[in-house]
């Protein structure tokens, strides 16, 4: 156990000479668990290996409800803007009931039906980059537009409003934003969605918000506030995650020429592209501040007693670098056989609801870029790329690229 | 090989239908697992075991019956 009485602060900043690697785990040498201190001064357990991570995330004696005492929330901003009752924060049995109201748009069948539409959007965006000619910024020209368009269409939110909700969603997820600013951003999003609900109520369309309005709000099964909370969660968590994953994936491929060659020579083979996406999810793991839980009772986690009321941070990004599960974990290997075991989307009942959608978006982007922009390369040195480390989602502020026109 | 899928435990994540579509489907409205073959041929063992291991709700059991 820790020799020092003073737990290390979590999360630490990354070493910018190897920006794809998580900071070294702040647990005692030879250990996989330890206490860390978080932003509000409280202590929580940090779990860093694969087996413990999976065990805790699958164990419903660990609650995801931030209203429980001892819950180690991600940041002041998160606490102020993201704590309402929704699929993220509810434990079972309530969680599954709520999730089943939303899941219709996220099933394997539904997401594969969306693939041609996603392909069309990606073709359009890449076509526009080619037409305009080099250089381009992958972040603004491709990585953000793809998931934003997709989530807007699914939820029924006008794409034209993307700057408004994008900035506010970013504030809610940003650990350097104060509680007041995040609370205001959250409240503005709620007002916006409230007005949108009026429009859906007057004229329902074929989208998720309209369905919630018609199926559960009008019938009195759920309040308007609840519908707002669910829609807000999908909107806030639905685009920034995938957007940054797309940008970082493009960067990871461009800076690993041997891997890029495998992908390019596969000519959009769905198996190769599919596995590359799994490996990129594992290697990059954008949700880099861990999954947060609190123990509802004393639980023995593979030999360590975690007491009721103690907070637990499951560092899924460190678990995805567990050498006993992923040998050579620090290396990007798009042919890695067990890449699909990644915990990038979490595990347990709170595993990301948009994971299938996110995967398809990544597959379409990588497959299409390889085909249509075969000479794509960075337009500035790797060490000048601005990494975004200020929130619960790791990412890039910009990714300037060029190609042979 | 025998597969069991516990619909009450299922959390509609869809991993099973993603990695083993010949063995599992999802309900159209609620995403809950639908087992397509409870005694599949041995050639599908790897797919079945991967679905078992990826299921985030541990709702899938593969046994050697």
Structure report:
The complex is a heterodimer of chains A (405) and B (65). Chain A is α+β, with helices and mostly antiparallel strands. Chain A has a single domain (8-402), classed as Cytochrome P450 (Cytochrome p450), CATH 1.10.630. Chain A is 47% helix and 10% strand. The N and C termini of chain A lie far apart (58 Å). Chain B has one domain (2-57): Alpha-Beta Plaits (2-Layer Sandwich). In chain B, the strands form two sheets. Chain B has a two-stranded antiparallel ribbon with strand order 1-4. In chain B, strands 2-3 form a two-stranded antiparallel sheet. In chain B, a hairpin with a 6-residue loop joins β2 (24-26) and β3 (33-35). Chain B is built from two helices and four strands; from the N terminus they run βαββαβ. By secondary structure, chain B is an alpha+beta fold. The N and C termini of chain B lie close together (5 Å). Chain A binds chain B through residues 57-58, 95-96, 99-100, 103-104, 106-109, 340-341, 346-349, 351, 353, 355-356, and chain B through 11-14, 17-19, 21, 25-26, 28-32, 50, 53-54, 56-58.
Task: Name its key features.
A: 405 residues, alpha+beta, three-stranded antiparallel β-sheet, 47% helix, globular, B: 65 residues, Alpha-Beta Plaits, two-stranded antiparallel sheet, 4 strands, 22% strand
Summarize the structure.
The complex is a heterodimer of chains A (405) and B (65). Chain A is α+β, with helices and mostly antiparallel strands and 405 residues long.
Topology (SSEs and partners):
The complex is a heterodimer of chains A (405) and B (65).
Chain A (H helix, E strand, L loop, with lengths): L7 E2 L23 E5 L5 E5 L2 H9 L3 E2 L12 H6 L12 H9 L5 H25 L3 E2 H6 L1 H11 L6 H12 L5 H24 L5 H10 L6 H31 L2 H9 L4 H15 L6 E5 L3 E3 L2 E3 L4 E4 L1 H4 L35 H18 L4 E2 L8 E2 L6 E2 L3 E3 L3
Parallel strand pairs in A: 1-2, 3-9
Antiparallel strand pairs in A: 2-3, 4-6, 5-13, 6-9, 7-8, 10-13, 11-12
Helix pairs in contact in A: 4-6, 4-14, 6-10, 7-8, 7-10, 8-10, 10-12, 10-14, 12-14
Chain B lengths: L1 E4 L9 H5 L4 E3 L6 E3 L9 H10 L5 E4 L2
Antiparallel strand pairs in B: 1-4, 2-3
